[in-house]
Design a protein that fits this description.
The protein is mainly alpha-helical. The chain is 53% helix and 4% strand. This is Peptidoglycan-binding domain 1 protein.
Length: 268
Amino acid sequence: MDVLKKGSRKERAVILLQIMLAEAGLLSSVDGKFGQATDEAVKALQRQSGLVVDGIVGEKTWTTLFLQFPDLLQRITAKYLQEADIRSAASDLNVELAAVKAVNEVESTGAGFIVDKPKILFEGHIFWRELKKKGIDPEGHRQGNEDILYPKWTTAHYQGGLAEYDRLEKAKGIDEEAALRSASWGIFQIMGFNAEELGYSDVYDFVERMFSHERHHLQAFCAYVRKHNLVQALQLKDWRAFARGYNGPRYEKNRYHIKLARAYERYC
């Protein structure tokens, strides 16, 4: 595990630390930021456990926490994608295992969860569109919500990590369904507005699955690939066609097709 101390910016590790400190009754909130409250909680844990009280979360402090909360770690790791899931997806799509592994490496965001919450990215321009679809005038809600509601795509308001849930909650205050449809979810960042076309009863059903296991993130990806006629591109290893269909016209800028080809060669 990462060595952490006050001011550390390794959000995923800090969140895991904070969740365990909260389980120990030493911390009241989890925000992914190693500030004063987290520093004091770490020192309290070290004091209780007879460790050196320095506020530095290294091997000894991590080990102490892991021994105290084995059930928590089991709940977290129980949601991880497994080799059997990748093999099942390859068989289901009638695609080479190496091709699916290449896509999982390049197109995924790595881990699908930030400890116990699926990774998301909130898109304010999609929220604008989803509100209009429901007959809600987005202009009437724009003041004070400029960071979550805007007519054109921009990265200016992205916060990343757990802070995206703050943006989502703010949007839910305007309309919950439209807000959920305006975020991308999980390992493969499938947008919520795709829920019904991918076979989910509604966006609430989709989000519930995203919270349950990374396996469901992969299943949503497979459904998306089928719906958008990208299976043949995977079967033929036509990485340019796949990247164009999955990433859109900007795929060349990020060299997705080249990254996919190289990943495929490694897995072969």
